[in-house]
Amino acid sequence: MREWDEPVAYGKRLKNLINRAFPERQIHLRTRARIRFFRIPQWFQVATVSGLILSTGWVSFSTFSYIEHDEIVGAKDTQIADARRAYDNLSSEVSAYQRRFTELTRELEDNHNLMLSLVERNATLQRSLTSVEKRLRYTESEREDVADARESLRNKLGSLEDEMRALSGKNFSLRDNLMSVETDLQKVIRERDEARKQGGQLSSQVAALEDRLNNLQTAQDVAVEKMTERTMAYIGSLEKVVEITGIGVDSLLASSDGVEAQNAQGGPFIPVKLDEAGGQLMQKLARLDTHLGQWETLQAVMARLPLAAPLNTYYVTSSFGKRRDPVNKRWSAHYGTDFGGPVRSPIYAPAPGIVKQAGTKGRYGRFIEIDHGSGIITRYAHLNRISVKRGDKVEFRQEIGKLGNSGRSTGPHLHYEIVFNGKPQDPMRFIKAGRHVFQEQ
């Protein structure tokens, strides 16, 4: 019964509250002597107050909704404006990248033309060196002929002097018979004068030949000195390029198998005396020959260095050395350089060599390894396609594959490594050294 009594009591209290708040009211209107009144019942008062409350609530809700809608619209307009600014910035960056791509393409074409010019100049220099060597050998032969002619003239002069002494002795022996042999004496005098005249002419010829020989030797010394200076300059330039790659010149030459055989020489040791004719020239020629051998050795080694980039168009996505792993974001060692570029871009051999591996290799995906000799190996990973097989001989700038996204990779790129005597090297230093060659030329 208590459960039913509580709602009934609550309803009575509510009814009493309404009766107290909204009692029946009357509005009296008096017009002269006439009085009228209007009765306002309780239900009308409750309905009116309820209507006012509902109207006020609806107006408040509508105002709040309108203000909030304006704020939402303003925020959306701000977001649209930010998106438009971001799009404009992105368009500017794309335009800048396109201009940079065009500049890089033009620069690579210029570098290619410079490399062709360098190869042609090297061939011209080789032909010039061969011509100089032939000329030096011809000059040496001519000098030997002049020395032989001078020795022959000296022998003739000595024989003439002996004849003159013999004639003088004969003159003294015929002094007592002067009258009887006057005719013979005059003949002898004429022969003596003729002999003296011939001796003077021979002495003049010998002096002229000696002057000619000295001038020839001076010209040879100047030519050899110039050739030596030019050869030393070329050697210094090549050594500077090797130093830019980060590899010591001595270490590179020590690892150059088969290159030293090009300068193999031998024979007995015969010292040249400095007071002999042409002794100093022979020493200069020997020094020049040593420098030429060193220059040829460096050229042969330089031909094996991968100084060109393996792609025509690229951008560096990950450098050599310490980095955060692109997959697990942990610090790791990166023993190569990642080059980004369009999928299926051709990959070229940066130097001649022999393919040691060509196929799939674990997380490297499609993989190629090329041995360039002298302890230098290049590696190419994440390829889309391989164009060579194991044992193939590849030439400089020969296409070996296509850029791809195979193996453990987050996107299309080429993982490029250079190894020297088992130690990884920074590929960008080799590419920088190749650019230095173009600048020197």
Order of helices and strands: HEEHHHHEEEEEEEEEEEEH
Number of helices: 6
Strand count, sense and barrel status of the largest sheet are: 10 strands, antiparallel
Apparent shape? rod-shaped
Tell me how many strands there are: 14
Strand-residue proportion: 15-25%
Task: Output the radius of gyration.
Answer: 53 Å
Helix proportion = 55-70%
Question: What structural class results from the helix and strand content?
Answer: alpha+beta
Mean pLDDT: 78
Low-confidence stretches: 258-270
Distance between the termini: 114 Å
Q: Describe it for me?
A:
- With 441 residues, the protein is α+β, with helices and mostly antiparallel strands.
- Among the domains are: 125-302; 311-440, Distorted Sandwich (Glucose Permease (Domain IIA)), CATH 2.70.70.
- It has six helices and 14 strands.
- It has helices spanning 2-21, 42-173, 182-244, 249-254, 279-302, 427-440; strands at 25-31, 34-40, 315-318, 321-324, 331-334, 337-340, 346-348, 353-360, 366-373, 376-386, 393-394, 399-403, 413-420, 423-425.
- The strands form three sheets. Strands 3, 6, 7, 8, 9, 10, 11, 12, 13 and 14 form a ten-stranded antiparallel beta sheet that branches. The chain has a two-stranded antiparallel ribbon with strand order 1-2. A two-stranded antiparallel sheet has the order 4-5.
